[in-house]
Amino acid sequence: MWNGNSKLRPSSPVLKPNQMSWHPQYRSSKFRHVYGKPASKENCYDSVPITRSVHDNHFCAVNPHFIAVVTECAGGGAFLVIPLHQTGKLDPHYPKVCGHRGNVLDIKWNPFNDFEIASCSEDATIKIWNIPKQLLTRNLTTYRKELIGHARRVGLVEWHPTTANILFSAGYDYKVMVWNLDTKDSVIAGPVKTINCHQDVILSMSFNTNGSLLATTCKDRKIRIVDPRLGIVLQEASYKGHRANKVLFLGSLKKLLSTGTSRWNNRQMALWDQENLSVPLTEEDLDGSSGVLFPFFDSDTSMLYIVGKGDGNIRYYEVSMEKPHLTYLTEYRSYNPQKGIGIMPKRGLDVSSCEIFRFYKLITTKSLIEPVSMIVPRRSESYQEDIYPPTAAAQPSLTAHEWLSGMNRGPIMMSLRPGSELLDSQTLPPERPLSNSMVQVSPQPLEPMKQPAEDGDQAPFSLLEEKLAKWTAEHHLGEKSCLTNGFDVFECSPPKTENELLQMFYRQQEEIRRLRELLIQREVQTKQLELEIKNLRMALGQL
Questions:
Q1: How far is CA 40 from CA 114, 351, 499, 502, in A?
Q2: Which of 133, 171, 309, 358 could share a disulfide with 291, CB 3.0–4.6 Å?
């Protein structure tokens, strides 16, 4: 169209309502800007003699108290147990945990006891160790239990995620063995169950959330889902386009993720439906490197981390139920390649800095263990409820006898908010009514109200009784010691570095803010109770 004041321009095409634009659809996510923050030099573990083993294991296990790492030892296998706060250069004569006659291949901390660790070795045994709370002054050679049953070396150990004293081991005799440690015997000569469905060496094991299913990968490149109590194969993947090396249950999403190689030897990951392993839901080629890919899944945030052996980078994705299921977020890059990796349980994270995951990279080229924190950038200093949903607590929900008899139960959950307690306790009997239980704790305020209640005014007084009981329960919970991620803030050692001082300052600020909120709630509840009492007295005066 032409007019006197305009130039001739080509008309732009008009998109119809049902016509798609070429712009990619925007996807909102609170984890889009997560970044990796490596620890400073003084907060790393230096001069650590990391193992030179070529096995494709993590070689590192971490809990809120200790970091354990497989090391070199003449005349047998050993590993180091270093207190988490003991950073810096390690003494070359630092005591080791040694007792195996062959190289240690895998170590795992007990998820319900931060001072108990399991190790397996080329000597075909598994050993359970009690780690003393004080610092080791000499080599620890006395184990608590020894498990004997495998005919060849043992490559993997896994604790059951919800049951106390149940341990799984996988050996080069192609067997997975289930051990019950709930005995007084120091030497256990046989497992309670042996799973014989594999035709080659087992490469990885993973449990679903409640531990009722076990997923494995084998050197025959097949993925199997096994009933761990019956030992029967429930699902088996024979897909030729993906050769699986590691497998992982993705929390409660009813999906599996495997890493391995494609037909063209590219490193690849594949997502599977737990109920149908015939064809993967999606596959993604990553690169042409040869190192094994270790997958880690955070069920609280639905984030997937892919760590490559021999790489310096860590890729992370967000997993969803809807297609395309895997959404690439970004990548942490480093020039230092990792030989192994350890991860901190969620209860050991620093919530004051919005840390949602923490890796411990084993860097053999520098004899260094480097912590890398995954941080969600937030401006607010208060506790971020949306990125810290309830997480699994360090308390079993089943005994070994209950699980072996066929019971399944999900993990007991806890909040990471400083000063909070367990959210549920499924191992306890059903809770009694709150009013009854509170009468035993604080009967005095309720006794004067029993007599008028018999004269026809039961409803108002039962309401007041319930309110008083609720207030008393919350009041008693608030009187307990101030815990920050499981540690008493008044018993913490004084800070030694500026970083520790800042962390303690932030924790104290958070604690002060929490107490102020608690005080305001108490004042509001007190005024409500006073008003209820006043109304009831007026009602009684009219009667």
A1: 26, 19, 10, 14
A2: 309
DSSP secondary structure letters along 180-192: E--SS-SEE-S-S
Give dist(CA 343, CA 60) in Å, integer: 8
The length of the chain in residues reads: 543
- What is the H or E stretch that residue 327 is in? strand 326-332
pLDDT of 19 over the 70 cut: no
Are 110 and 117 a contacting pair, CB within 8 Å? yes
Q: What are phi and psi for residue 247, nearest 5 degrees?
A: -135, 150
Q: What is the pTM of this model?
A: 0.73
Residue type, 82: I
Question: Which residues, in sequence order, are bridge partners of residue 255?
Answer: 273
Contact 62, 360 (CB under 8 A): yes
Residue identified by tokens 């860590």 is 314
Q: What residues pair up with 357 in beta bridges, in sequence order?
A: 374
User: Are 226 and 216 contacting, i.e. CB atoms less than 8 angstroms apart?
Assistant: yes
The partner residues of 88 in beta bridges, in order of sequence, read 45
- C-alpha 270/C-alpha 246 separation (Å) is 10
Q: pLDDT tens for residues 157-211?
A: 999 999 999 999 999 999 999 999 999 889 999 899 999 999 999 999 999 999 9
- Residue 201 · residue 166 · CB < 8 Å: no
508-536 burial: b if 16+ Cβ within 10 Å, else e: eebbeebeeeeeeeeeebeeeeeeeeeeb
Question: For the chain, first and last CA: distance in Å?
Answer: 88
The token pair that represents 408 in the structure block: 């399944």
Contact between 485 and 418 under an 8 Å Cβ cutoff? The reply is yes
Residues 220, 211: contact at Cβ < 8 Å?
A: no
At 113, the amino acid letter reads N
CA distance 253 to 496: 43
- CA dist., res. 228 & res. 403, Å (int): 10
Q: What does the alpha-carbon distance between residue 147 and residue 516 come to, in Å, rounded to a whole number? A: 52
Distances (CA, A) of 56 to 105, 204, 290: 9, 10, 12
Q: Tokens representing 276?
A: 């149908």
